[in-house]
Amino acid sequence: MFVLALVAVLTWSQVVLASSGELLIKFYDVGQGDSIYIQTPAGYKILVDGGPNNRVVDYLNKDLGVGQRELDLVILTHPQEDHLKGLIEVVRRFPVKKVLVTNATHTTASFQMWTDVLGQQNLKPETVVAGDTVNLTDGVSFKFVWPRPEIESPKDLNEASAVFKLTFGEFDVLLTGDADAKNQPYSGNIGDIEVLKVPHHGAKTGLKEDFLSELKPEIAVISLSKNNTYGHPGANIIQMLSAVGSKIYRTDQNGTVQIVSDGEKWYTRTEK
Residue range 6-28: average pLDDT? Predict the structure, then answer.
């Protein structure tokens, strides 16, 4: 188990952001994949997954702005193409201070390219498992609840997907990667949350009713593409989310979904 602490060197623009006391989360519209940008009150810049293409680079060019165009932390939930591929170009183009991964590996060309580019940038990824935490100096924390240490590279890489709870004050977000319902033995340790990144792009196997009843998310975000060939989101998932009163946002319909919180209140804004 480890606790990772990050110390930021703040530019003037970041100091202004810190004084606002707000946390920014953007669920990028990258098509059939996941990519989530997080900027904390102290100006820490974090990217979770990179999507299936290089669209994330265009988003980062806008969101990182001028000056200190670097990422403090990159988290790869699991090494499937729709989460990994965009990160390769991100690491090539932007300085990255720290990379977190799970034990999972893959045999694809993209995974080899990912490994190569990390080496070229002198980045040594650290492995996270359930129980690990990331504590930032501005009160934002990440608590990893999956995968278990004994899970390395299962046949279904979704089983090794990182799941973690982001907390800022009274505001809680559960980021789930592609972890399906069968990989939710961590339920019972989460409690009520405000925002759920719906697992596996809304796949019909992604959630269980008892798990959702525990979470009671006020906001549910599904990252997916229009007319995808997987049948996402499952009608049962939409029904379950509606039954617990979740407001549903979909990147295929709403574009990039932005959520801002001061640790108590929050608001959402969408691209479409």
Answer: 59
